[in-house]
Amino acid sequence: PASASSALPAAGDAPLSEAVQKLNVLNNLLAQASYAAFWSTLDSDDLYADLIADVAGFEELIRIRIALTISQSVREIERSVLESWLGMQGEAFNKFVNGVCGWGIEGTVVKVPMNKENEAKGTIVRENVKMEQFSRVIRRAYEQPA
Question: Are 105 and 86 a contacting pair, CB within 8 Å?
Fold first, then answer.
């Protein structure tokens, strides 16, 4: 009689290694912020659907994380770009953007409310230059080329 543990795939089996490779591809696409490519890759193969089937709310969680990242960097974004990044369109897109994110849609632009991460901040750079440093620059301007 075969034991229950022998029915599990070994680390070298093609299905397990293929699954790990596919998950790694998805991870890399998200890490690179290649969101449109992430969704097209996810929809490209049934194995991806099998891999995420047991993760409750996987796509919603990914969309929320993408939206959070976007909200930290922009105040407005073209609707078509955001649709591709979130992998959704139409009424589902409107509900997610308005209901879940709390953002506004004005024509072809999605407005992200200001927050501490996406607020434009002016910076003032002040440098203290000593007279010796400045005098060297002036001296070099009057030197004759060799």
Answer: no
